[in-house]
Amino acid sequence: MSARAIPLTLEAGIPDHKPTFSEAQALAEANRCLYCHDAPCVVACPTGIDIPGFIRKIATDNLKGSARTILSANLLGYSCARVCPVEVLCAGACVHQHQGTPTIAIGRLQRYAVEKAFERGDAAQLLRRKPLNEKKIACVGAGPASLACAGYLALEGFAVTVYEGRALAGGLNTTGVAPYKMHVDGALREVDLVKDLGVTVKTGVTVGKDITPQALLDNHDAVFLGVGLGADTRLGIDGEDGAGVVGATAWIERLKTEPGFALDGVKAAVVVGGGNTAIDAARELAHLGIRDVALAYRRTEDVMSGYAHELAHGREEGVRLVENAVPQSFVRDGAKLTGVALADGRVLPADLVLVAIGQAKAPESVPAFPGVQRDAKGGLVADAATGRTGNPKVFAGGDVLGGELVVTAVQDGKRAARAICAALGVAVDPDAPMMAGHV
What we know:
By secondary structure, the protein is an alpha/beta fold. The protein has helices at residues 23-30, 40-44, 51-59, 63-73, 77-83, 106-120, 144-155, 172-175, 184-196, 213-219, 248-257, 276-287, 308-316, 406-423; strands at residues 136-140, 159-164, 200-203, 222-225, 245-247, 268-272, 292-296, 319-322, 327-333, 336-342, 347-349, 352-355, 394-396. It has 3 domains: 10-125, Orthogonal Bundle (Fumarate Reductase Iron-sulfur Protein, Chain B, domain 2), CATH 1.10.1060; 130-229 and 360-435, FAD/NAD(P)-binding domain, CATH 3.50.50.60; 245-355, FAD/NAD(P)-binding domain (3-Layer(bba) Sandwich), CATH 3.50.50.60. The protein has 14 helices and 13 strands. A 5-stranded parallel beta sheet has the order 3-2-1-4-13, sandwiched between helices. It is globular. It starts with 22 loop residues before the first helix and ends in a 16-residue tail after the last helix. The mean pLDDT is 95.
């Protein structure tokens, strides 16, 4: 499915909290940039986008050049512009913050430039593709790490096939990003971009079930594993098995991708957790009209792993934080969920509870390749600089190596693409797109 054929889902009712700039807004904001030498915003970007460079091009009405600068360093520059925590990355390092003036809206400018390329339909043509060589690469999983690796290898002339078990490609960008940051169609625009670079994307194909790891190794010169994480972690307390208690990422996937999914009868909801997924889920519930949304965190706000600015927005939208909230059991009236009983005796009313305390690196999400080792948590063991595993033909990146952000997954994919080229004896020009940014 492409970005042009998206069925209506529950996320359609959640508006974009940072709409795209108009031309006048983009020009005004671009002209605020100081175009710093050795810009700290570039250092803070995991993919090393030349931020002053692409912003200057916007200011001089060179939108094609701006998009080319972004995509050279980050093929998923569109989604990163929308979902990256810019407040703690590029914009958080902006020199304006030391001058008492608002930091440059880097994410919104980046979105503006790439979105214009999508609207023109020339995003793929902005990057030069080498003639096909005789090397074939398989990428397992169609999330940001795999898409980046596949796209950059395609530009270097490799024949790349991406295998994805779900019906929709895009990984977390498609199934897990908060709708107020990006809807499914935004993620699929980038899948279409990678396809336009020559990558074959096969959905509904699970490696380890529909095709064996050995078959991939036998039929490809290298394999990249970007399979992401497994199922939501469970609390393991009384009453968890039953209607009304759902893993947060599973619930988010349904509201983003399942036509007809609704929240009928939900008046009070509790989200258990203190990370960014928990905050996102709570904000989504508030956006969908649930009047009583509680974020139940087992410790205090000052040690929450979720971003403070996201929690602040959540409070503005009606989410209330309940600190020192350790769930002891789920309260039910027969089969119907009515609340969450806490260890200190408090009871939080709830018709729906979303559990957001992490995800497993489940065995089924990481097919067994010979020579590829796992750590104690089930993640893969790989060289940090190259993504190379114990099998010289297998590379890895993204969440399965412990990454947390879309932008770090993209950088993992870039690093692995460079390492695959080196391993297969394919020379990469210093000015090739995959060489842009941090090396």
